[in-house]
Design a protein that fits this description.
Its EC number is 2.7.4.6. By secondary structure, the chain is of the alpha+beta class. It is built from seven helices and five strands; from the N terminus they run βααβααβααβαβ. The longest helix has 12 residues. It is globular, with a radius of gyration of 14 Å. Bound molecules: 2'-deoxyadenosine-5'-diphosphate and magnesium ion. The site of 2'-deoxyadenosine-5'-diphosphate (DAT) has 9 residues, from loops.
Amino acid sequence: MERTFVMVKPDGVRNGLIGDIVSRFEKKGFTLRGIKLMHIDRPLAERHYGEHREKPFFGELVDYLTSGEVCAMVWEGKHAVANARSLIGKTNPVEAVPGTIRGDFAMDVASNVVHGSDSPENAEREISLFFGDSAAAVYLFTSPPLTHS
Ligand code: DAT
Ligand code: MG
């Protein structure tokens, strides 16, 4: 069984989309393994999106991710990474088809409501970052570390 890291971003939390997003993953057949509401700090946001450090939108991306609470989740299932990415839809909501989360709930690439890991390796890295002992964050609600499966 594969795991993936999914996060409802601050605009998704502000707009009341946690329930709908969780529901879509449950109905698809995923198993929820971890969930917490948290406010992430800038170093964690920068580590999470480290691959985009040189991109012109990096500063704006970190501002956005730290602008409010996020809902961090671990979902498990067959081909969890690829199945989650297909539920989420294309990065740019303009291209995300209706029926996907971004196709239904987002307009702009800079605030596209949800994150999903892009590979099993990155999924485990992100699960450690957000659910491991050393996660540099203020937890509103917390759960035991999920680093060891
Ligand atoms: P994804 O989130 O689909 O994996 P990504 O890893 O390429 O997409 O980019 C990470 C996030 O960065 C993305 O969800 C939204 C933001 N982003 C990507 N391209 C952008 C752009 N051209 N302008 C502003 N934000 C962008
Ligand atoms: Mg990505």
